[in-house]
Amino acid sequence: MTIKDLLEKDLKFILVGGKGGVGKTSIASAISIALAEEGKKTLLVSTDPAHSISDSFDLDFSSGTVTKVKGVKGELYALEINPESTGDELTKALGDSFDAEQFSSLMSIPGMEAMRGIDQDIKSIPPPGMDEALSFAKILEYADNEEFDTIVLDTAPTGHTLRLLNIPEFLDSFIGRMLKMKTFISNTMAMIKSFFGGNVEKDRTIENLEKLKEKILVARETLMDEEKTQFIIVGIPTLMSIFESERLFEELKEHYIPNREIVVNQINPENKSCPYCMNRRKEHLANLEYIRQAFPNHDITTVEAFNQEIRGIKMLKKLKDIICN
Ligand SMILES: Nc1ncnc2c1ncn2[C@@H]1O[C@H](COP(=O)(O)OP(=O)(O)OP(=O)(O)O)[C@@H](O)[C@H]1O
Ligand SMILES: [Mg+2]
Fold first, then answer.
1. In terms of domains, do 176 and 265 share one?
2. Whose CA is nearest to atom 18 of ligand 1?
3. Which residues of 120-139 are buried (b: 16+ CB within 10 A; e: fewer)?
4. 88 catalytic, yes or no?
């Protein structure tokens, strides 16, 4: 299967990842143009805190909202997620009713020892990494909605991507613990209130948390389904990049994220009048051969280095024609 075949499938998510500076943003941008031209309503999202899809298109998507990309045939939208503004999802789910002090005082009632383990959790709300987790959760929300046909994710360099892959589990377990805690508070309060003859209002927070948990579960399944998700590893033909691609591939396997495509970018083009270039090219082609052997079941797409930076729609279309031919 080639990238062109891949784009003809009805994928919900295409994740593009790899080592720093290898061309992830350029490839993700070119792929998103190809999808839009195919007639798919496409959203290109950057989860890299150091956004660069604006730079790649030479347009401004920094508003933190979904913006239509002008100059591309079909429907292409771009979004650079601002992690700081995505905290609302959890806050919304937890509701204003969550009261850590109330919870702590309940914990001090004799007989509540059984719930002690979870009171550790409220000491770190939001827990570390929550901003990033919620940015990702925001994207995952698109998994079970029809607003876009395909979401292309331009990720940050490898380490960050690997953290991203752990996020559904992280959120699932965190929300699971919050649910337990909220249910406990809600039941205890209901008991106390009904004892004193008060009204017991329904706690919406639990319902919201359950909905959020369900959404994450759907997204997790979508991410593991090869009919719906493909991860494209981008690398360059150097040993350092190859080793990193191998590690990334292993991690993807561990997380059951489908990955059949590798793009080897920035291969030195042939230039007989330049001994340095020819030497680099020879080295690149030898490494490319190594990549083919190391990934015998992958489709490998090669891209030569352009003689200038890839910037703006015209250049991105040129890159698109190379990777989709
Ligand atoms: N085939 C190529 N030929 C020439 N320049 C390229 C090629 N691919 C990418 N570039 C250039 O290399 C630089 C890095 O590319 P890009 O931003 O796409 O990489 P990245 O992997 O997203 O980087 P980061 O890890 O910083 O997010 C950019 O200036 C881009 O225009
Ligand atoms: Mg990038």
1. no
2. 23
3. eebeeeeeeebbbbbbbbbb
4. no
Residues 261-285: tens digit of each pLDDT: 999 999 999 999 999 999 999 999 9
Residue 3 domain flag: no
The pLDDT value recorded for residue 97 is 46
- Residues around ion ligand 2, judged by CB within 5 A, are 24-25, 52
CA of 18 to the centre of ligand 2 (A): 9
Q: Secondary structure of 208-269 in the HEC alphabet?
A: HHHHHHHHHHHHHHHHHCCCCEEEEEEECCCHHHHHHHHHHHHHHHHCCCCCCEEEEEEECC
The structure tokens 């570390």 sit at: 128
Identified catalytic residue from 48, 58, 149, 225: 48
What pLDDT score was predicted for residue 51?
Answer: 74
pTM for this prediction: 0.83
In a domain, residue 1? The reply is no
CA-CA distance, 213 to 147, in Å (whole number)? 21
Q: Is the CB of 72 under 6 A from ligand 1?
A: no
Whether 233 and 314 map to the same domain: the answer is: yes
307 and 159 in a common domain: yes
Q: State which of 26, 47, 302, 318 you would mutate to test the pocket of ligand 1, scoring each by most atoms of that ligand within 8 A of its C-beta.
A: 26
What is the domain extent for residue 285?
8-85+133-163+222-323
> For the chain, which ranges sit under pLDDT 50?
96-98
